[in-house]
Design brief:
This protein is mainly alpha-helical. 57% of the residues lie in helices and 0% in strands. It is globular, with a radius of gyration of 12 Å. The chain starts with 7 loop residues before the first helix and ends in an 8-residue tail after the last helix.
Length: 69
């Protein structure tokens, strides 16, 4: 897997799909299914998607879990 800075175009789609889990909205089955489909359409394996989630998305978005709108 390329580093994020060398893979921005493909990585952007994954980040966009995963970030919905951290928004202050009700995440229902539709949102989860849509995020899963978008991630499945990338070239990344499940293991790589997990690394992207924990190393790139979670550190950036985790503070949203503490704030209530």
């Amino acid at each position: 897997m390329l580093p994020p800075e060398d893979d921005l175009e493909e990585r952007q789609g994954v980040w966009d799909a995963m970030h919905v889990l951290f928004l202050d909205t009700d995440v229902d089955a539709f949102h989860l299914d849509d995020a899963a489909k978008k991630c499945a359409q990338t070239r990344y394996s499940v293991e790589e998607l997990e690394v992207i989630f924990w190393r790139e998305v979670y550190p950036t978005m985790r503070s949203n879990l503490w704030d209530i709108a």
